[in-house]
């Protein structure tokens, strides 16, 4: 069974040596249901809104299974929220999710998979692991961002059901590794309008080969 094992939102803003000066990456599990709207979870924030958040990155999900992989790799616990995720999941392949597929979470909340998480300097400073951005990238387990198609509450224990999946087959893992031109064309041919950040990413792939 696929389900949400933890719901996380910002606990406190932390000082950070990056250009913004603070970070909201410190997410912690919360009890009870949390309302999710087009810009994300109620009472959650993003410090660097130029690169994080917005409607196409409203919710970030990470799998228990991938967290367990990193826990073994680093020989340390990876509790829910450590990677800055809003939802920790179980029983569903987040990296294998197809961009554009839709998840019904609980009875009401409808989310659409958009793009993978790209590791940044803030994430590296959070983990304090040598060459963390490179190591995280090499493992190919990025987690996925979602846009909110229909608002609703989310709580730990809510079931996750994939209710729609585009037939182009391009996954979050494919996007993270670097799409081929054929994959980019397949995504662009999707019948449903693409989220703007997905449109941007696949267009960049084709622009590179056109030069």
Describe this structure in words.
Helices cover 26% and strands 27% of the residues. The chain has 211 residues and is α+β, with helices and mostly antiparallel strands. The strands form 3 sheets. Strands 4-1-8-7-11-10-9-13 form an 8-stranded mixed beta sheet. Strands 6-5-12 form a 3-stranded antiparallel beta sheet, with no helix packed on it. Strands 2-3 form a two-stranded antiparallel sheet. The N and C termini lie far apart (46 Å).
Integer count of domains: 1
The rounded distance between the terminal residues' Cα atoms is: 46 Å
Please give the radius of gyration in angstroms: 16 Å
Low-confidence stretches: none
Q: From the 3D coordinates, which CATH architecture would you assign?
A: Beta Barrel
Briefly, what is this?
This protein is about 25% helix and about 25% strand.
Characteristic key phrases:
eight-stranded mixed sheet; alpha+beta; 13 strands; 211 residues; three-stranded antiparallel sheet; M1 Pyruvate Kinase, Domain 3; globular
Topology:
Blueprint: E1 3-10, E2 14-15, E3 22-23, E4 27-29, E5 34-37, E6 40-41, E7 59-63, H1 64-74, E8 87-90, E9 102-105, E10 109-116, H2 121-127, H3 132-139, E11 144-150, E12 152-154, E13 160-164, H4 172-177, H5 181-188, H6 196-210
